[in-house]
């Protein structure tokens, strides 16, 4: 009797997980390309993480996405870690290899860059310094990616200063740390401006910074994508900036995992955006 191939399973682990848009996104791509497979949200507590990683491959999982709060801890449980995941200190995409080893990557930075390139093709990262607000986990992926694409200087400010200071030792001489209360000064001459704080998310206070020094034509993006047009982006656009919302980063960071698990590189286009927005 010929053995039927196993239907590939993938998913996202985090806690909480109900808010995640990833199941809608992967589910849409599976349907669009007529592929066999399932993508499942899983609320897994920190204490159960190691056991989950042992069990999931046996159940037919070919890989998973990892989100808050497990992105850092998961690195210590992987067998192969890409250079960029090691530099960032976190992983968001795991591949369960046939040889039993777990491969960990971080695609957030590549997703961040792909989103800007798709929506603002004229963007030139080498045109001037970047100003990065916030120094959390997502900021590490953003800064690593900005360095990789040739941004000459990265200015960073964070409410808790020590978290920003670590960037100087981890990412080197291109990093200039500013006081949170002086963060608006980072905008002077900046060609790229990024909000990586969680401020501006629905239910949280807006992210606000005086924009007097913002260069007309600077590229301004926000990692927050609920709402899609944050107050920060609205004000930056009114001040003459080119703006890019954060949803495309979510879509682009998901594409490499989908390709590895289900065997087809998915398109990130308007139909994909609409599918996620309407889910
Ligand atoms: P995180 O590690 O918890 O970092 C949160 C950041 O926000 C820190 O810099 C924190 O500053 C700052 N912050 C929070 N509340 C603040 C306040 N009241 N005033 C000033 N700063 C405040 O989270 P993360 O993983 O980096 O995620 C950050 C944001 O990016 C979230 O909104 C997340 O949803 C979004 N994100 C989006 C994508 C995407 O695909 N678009 C991908 C990843 C993340 P302190 O260090 O001082 O607390």
UniProtKB/TrEMBL annotation:
This is Shikimate dehydrogenase (NADP(+)). Residues 130-198 form the Quinate/shikimate 5-dehydrogenase/glutamyl-tRNA reductase domain. Shikimate binds at residues 20-22, 67, 92, 108, 225, 253. Pfam families: SDH_C, Shikimate_DH, Shikimate_dh_N. CDD domains: NAD_bind_Shikimate_DH. Belongs to the shikimate dehydrogenase family. GO terms for molecular function: NADP binding; shikimate 3-dehydrogenase (NADP+) activity. Involved in the biosynthesis of the chorismate, which leads to the biosynthesis of aromatic amino acids. Catalyzes the reversible NADPH linked reduction of 3-dehydroshikimate (DHSA) to yield shikimate (SA). NADP(+) binds at residues 83, 134-138, 223, 246. The keyword NADP applies. One of its GO terms (biological process) is aromatic amino acid family biosynthetic process. GO terms for cellular component: cytosol. Residues 12-94 form the Shikimate dehydrogenase substrate binding N-terminal domain. It catalyses: shikimate + NADP(+) = 3-dehydroshikimate + NADPH + H(+). Keywords: Amino-acid biosynthesis, Aromatic amino acid biosynthesis, NADP, Oxidoreductase. The active site is at 71 (proton acceptor). It comes from Gemmobacter aquaticus. Its EC number is 1.1.1.25. HAMAP family: Shikimate_DH_AroE (MF_00222).
């Amino acid at each position: 009797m010929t053995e039927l191939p196993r239907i590939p399973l993938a998913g996202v682990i985090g806690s909480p997980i109900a808010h995640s848009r990833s199941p809608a996104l992967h589910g849409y791509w599976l349907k669009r390309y007529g592929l066999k497979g399932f993508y499942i949200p899983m609320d897994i507590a920190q204490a159960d993480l190691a056991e989950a990683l042992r069990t999931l491959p046996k159940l037919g999982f070919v890989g998973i996405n990892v989100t808050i709060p497990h992105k850092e801890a998961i690195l210590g449980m992987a067998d192969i870690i890409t250079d960029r995941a090691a530099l960032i200190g976190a992983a968001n995409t795991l591949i369960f290899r046939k040889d039993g080893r777990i491969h960990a990557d971080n695609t957030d930075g590549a997703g961040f860059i792909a989103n800007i390139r798709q929506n603002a093709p004229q963007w030139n990262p080498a045109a001037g310094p970047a100003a990065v607000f916030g120094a959390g986990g997502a900021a590490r992926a953003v800064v690593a990616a900005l360095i990789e694409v040739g941004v000459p200087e990265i200015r960073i400010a964070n409410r808790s200063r020590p978290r920003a200071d670590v960037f100087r030792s981890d990412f080197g001489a291109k990093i200039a740390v500013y006081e949170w209360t002086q963060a608006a000064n980072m905008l002077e001459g900046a060609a790229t401006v990024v909000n990586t704080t969680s401020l501006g998310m629905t239910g949280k206070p807006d992210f606000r910074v005086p924009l007097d020094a913002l260069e007309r034509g600077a590229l301004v993006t926000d990692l927050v994508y609920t709402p899609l047009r944050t107050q920060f982006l609205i004000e930056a656009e009114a001040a003459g900036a080119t703006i890019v919302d954060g949803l495309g980063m979510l879509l682009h960071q998901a594409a490499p995992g989908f390709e590895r698990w289900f065997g087809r590189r998915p398109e990130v286009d308007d139909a994909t955006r609409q599918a996620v927005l309407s889910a």
